[in-house]
Amino acid sequence: MSKVKNNNGYHGVTEPISLSGPTEKYLMQTAEVEKYLSDARLYERQDEAILREEVLGKLDQVEQFSTEIYYFASFKIFFSLAAVDEGTTSRSMMGTSENPLRAGLEIMVWSLGHGDG
């Protein structure tokens, strides 16, 4: 993709407000804000990001097996549509010790069996 420059040699419609980099004060303020957000645990750690991706990947696999997946914020809740015993409840469809779901998001599966009425 080529970058189009206008007649003044700048990218975009108008020229930039400033070509100078951030000031030392700005860099210090940015570092303070980032430290505060990190201390408040508002940044996702790398291991948390990896686990989240693994869990969401597993849920995408579950979607192939007769389920409906509903998104809520960054979490998914899924409902099994398989015809199983009515009222069966499980903490996690794949919550074994070998599976990262056990350590990750708590997933509730409500089985929708065939009822009498």
Layout of SSEs?
Blueprint: H1 24-39, H2 46-63, E1 67-72, E2 75-80, E3 89-90, E4 109-110
Give a quick set of tags describing it.
two-stranded antiparallel sheet, PolA_pol_NTPase, 117 residues
In the predicted model, the low-confidence regions spanning at least 5 consecutive residues are 75-117
Largest β-sheet summary: 2 strands, antiparallel
Number of distinct helices: 2
Taken as a percent bin, the fraction of beta residues is 5-15%
Q: Approximately how much helix is present in the residues?
A: 25-40%
Average pLDDT rating: 64
Which strands sit side by side, in order, in the main sheet? 1-2
Shape: flat
Indicate the radius of gyration in whole angstroms: 24 Å
C-alpha end-to-end distance: 60 Å
Number of strands: 4
Element-by-element helix/strand order: HHEEEE
Overall structural domain count? 1
* Oligomeric state of the chains in view: single chain
**What structural class do helix, strand and pairing data support?**
alpha+beta
Organism: Zea mays
InterPro entries: NT_sf, PolA_pol_NTPase
Domain Poly(A) polymerase nucleotidyltransferase: 12-65
Pfam families: PAP_NTPase (PF20750)
